[in-house]
User: What shape does this take?
Amino acid sequence: MSPVTSKVPDQLTLPALREAAAGCRACDLYKTGTQTVFGQGAEHAQVMFVGEQPGDREDREGKPFVGPAGRVLDEALEEAGIDRRRVYITNAVKHFKWKPQGKRRLHQKPNAAEINACRPWLDGEIAVVKPHLLVLLGATAAQALLGRDFRVSVQRAQLMERPGLPPMMATVHPSSILRAPDDETREIEMRAFVQDLKRVAQHLQR
Ligand code: URA
Assistant: This one.
């Protein structure tokens, strides 16, 4: 395959999408990211979680939500009674955007052009998996799919509809819980996140 391809394959399958996305050059983030971090999970999951973009750990391991935010997500999923192996987890942007700060790689928010450039991969994942519900984790994913005016703080956990997309529900990004200023606030925010995920659990048919 050409190293500069970013074309969505005609044959829509997750392996074909993953392979094509690995060579994506649709924006500049491939230049600084280690690899494309494609979604992962059950092929016909009833629920798909969409985060913002891979973090430092995800960039190195090539898997979504395996770093600190992933641990918060895992804990909340477990408390809500959701088996991670039964859902599909991906990101709006599939390369890590960062800037150096000393020896660390500091997370940078993806811009609209980067989110749009990555959209065909997310649309491909949605088309193959056909989830009954999309769970949008944080403002980047929510605004990418529900529009720039969407505010998680205002319409959190509400069922939203948009033409051509499965029903959606937005909640906070797990990393916002990690950024809580103190233990008490963190606990309150975690409880609210678990509460949202319990609503998600109702969409998982046995
Ligand atoms: N944050 C995200 O939005 N996605 C990941 O995969 C990890 C951290």
